[in-house]
């Protein structure tokens, strides 16, 4: 085994004093709806379809001066011994191990069912604090509707309606009663956000697990295993990050299931809010139009990008050269600011340079560029290669300053700039990128016409 294969990233899930509330229950009892209500977000996909959530999904909540973490889980079926339902059950058990409080959710409208009894027996063995939550009680008499659930022997049931927000705050107060108030970490939302994206079954979740050093998300030899965007906070080399595992993106014509349409939306939203995207390609398949479309969307959103060609182990030299040629031909628009990494997420090979490239791309995307140096670079570029004439006049480029970051935006001021051709704009982009060493991020140059003080004379 090579040193690369022996590499284990020194990462760990961020230790926090915030209590962790884990939502447990059979499919379609309203766990994700309650997750969104507790986190005041729409981060979890919600639809009237069982089995929508599969992985652990973390979110932040706050009640008064008490902050907490909420963990959404897939429908819990502890008796299943194989297949995707078994993998979901293992994820749920991992979540229970992390829990300070388990919110066991049942469905008031379906009443007490056998699976609720099986889950309650499983939960009693964990030794965790358990609150029995009877959901979907809107319009009902709470004392009557919760009566049959006393049979589970988990104490007084708490009647709520997650969809309508009824008694959700009271539930949170009950869950947090044993925990002190904390101050919100001012930096908790400022960690670099890294979205792992690509087509279905290219190894995104395997890569996430390898980066984390644990089986944090489900990996299964079936396209579409990941359906939601899963946010995972972790620490590497004393620096905090948020990894976002996303659902695979298919071509629009193949996105037919309601669940998958939701998944695509969540993936596109993940790219939009990320600082860096890792585009994962499958080295054992040709580079497809969809790979190029995903890359184009990332560039359109202006996100920093790291290219990872997965499943590189086992390929012969001819296959490897073929993939490299396809990248040069079909993804040439990426190669002026990023380089491909050839990896095996399963075996860990080729991973040593991946995270340094992520850090480099993030630094470039968030770089602060000084106005004097930008202007000197601009004038030097113009002196070396002036813009072409537009009729009788040549565009005059006077000075430049930074207009934003993620991606870096450089605004060039001057006159007759509306006639600067796209080719010259790309020349300036490449010049700024090379001068400021902006590797791994798109760069945008915009022109702003300055008023000519002699125009009316």
Structural notes for this entry:
The chain has 457 residues and is of the alpha/beta class. It has three domains: 18-176, P-loop containing nucleotide triphosphate hydrolases (Rossmann fold, 3-Layer(aba) Sandwich), CATH 3.40.50.300; 193-365, Rossmann fold (3-Layer(aba) Sandwich); 371-449, GMP Synthetase, Chain A, domain 3 (2-Layer Sandwich), CATH 3.30.300. 32% of the residues lie in helices and 21% in strands. It contains 13 helices and 16 strands. It has helices spanning 3-6, 31-39, 83-98, 114-124, 142-145, 168-176, 204-212, 258-273, 289-301, 317-330, 354-365, 371-384, 422-436; strands at 11-13, 20-24, 57-63, 66-72, 101-107, 129-135, 158-159, 193-198, 230-236, 239-245, 276-282, 304-310, 340-342, 396-404, 409-415, 444-449. The strands form three sheets. Strands 1-9-10-8-11-12-13 form a seven-stranded mixed β-sheet, with helices on both faces. A six-stranded mixed β-sheet has the order 3-4-2-5-6-7, sandwiched between helices. Helix 4 links the parallel strand 5 and strand 6. Helix 12 packs across helix 13. The radius of gyration is 26 Å and the shape is elongated. The model is unreliable at 1-16, 44-54, 184-189, 216-228, 248-264 and 453-457 (pLDDT under 50).
